[in-house]
Amino acid sequence: MTVVRQNIEFEKMHGLGNDFVVIDARDRESGLSESLITAIADRHCGVGFDQLAVIEKSDTADAHLTFYNADGSTSAACGNATRCIGRKLLDEGGKSELTLTTARGTLKAREAGNGLVSVNMGHPQLDWQDIPLAREMDTLELPIEGAPTATGMGNPHCTFFVDDAEAIDLETLGAKLEHHPLYPERTNVQFASLVGESHLRMRVWERGVGPTLASGSSSCATAVAAARRGLTGRQVQIDLDGGTLHIDWADDGVWMTGATMHVFSGVFTVEFVDSAQ
Questions:
Q1: Could you tell me the domains of the chain?
Q2: What's the pTM?
Q3: DSSP β-bridge partners for residue 262
Q4: Where does 37-94 show beta strands of DSSP type E?
Q5: In terms of CB atoms within 10 Å, which of 27, 124, 271, 276 comes out highest?
C-alpha cells in the first residue's frame, strides 16, 4: 500500500519565551514520529521548540493535549503550553473558561483579563512515590547538597533556594542534576532566590530540553516549595528570564497566570516530513 504524505500545519507560540510548536490534530492524524519530533525541534534545520503540543478531540473536555520535549520524550504536563493553547481555544470558542484533558489530569483554563490566561495545574504531588523519587524520604529537604525540595506537578521537580539565582552555573548544574539517581524519571531543576515578600527570581533547567526562558510547571513547583518552607505565602510572583508569572496555590489546585503569544502559523512540507522519517 502506498503511503500518502501530506503537509502538516502548525502554529508557533510562546509563553514568556518558553516556546512551542502546536499541531491541531482534532480533525486529522498528527503524522508525528519520534524522529520527526526531534527534527522539528532542531533550531537550525527545523523550527525549534522547548515543547511540542498536539491538540486532539476529547469526549469529556474541550480538547485533549499531549506534550513532547525537544529530545522526543513525553511530558505529562506543560503549563505555559497549556496557557498558550488555552488562549487559542478560548478565542476560538468565544468562551471565558474551558477544560483540557492531559496525562496530568483534567485542567481548567480561564480568561484572566488584559490578555492574560490562567490555568489550574492541579494539586501538587508531595509524597516521594508520586513525584516519583527512587526511595522513601522527606520531600521538603532532599539528601542532595543544597537540600532542595522535591515536588510533582505531573512531572518531577527539584528546587534549590539560593542567595542569588543569577550567579548559578545553570548549564553545568542543571545537566548534572537532571539525571540525579534520586529521580528515576529525571527531573526539572530550578534555582530560586527571594527578592521580596512572596516574590522570587527563578532560573530553570528543563528535563529533556535544557535551559529555558520560562517554565510554567517549574514555576508552580517552586511556588509550592517556597510556601512549604515558609519562605513565601501561597500567592507568589516569579520572575523568570522571559518574564513574570503569578502563582496561586489555592484550595482547588495551583493556578498560574501570565501572558501568551501566537508568533506565526506555518506548514511542514512533504519534503521535510519525508526527510525526518
A1: 8-120+260-276 (3.10.310.10), 149-251 (3.10.310.10)
A2: 0.92
A3: 13
A4: 51-56, 63-69, 74-75
A5: 124
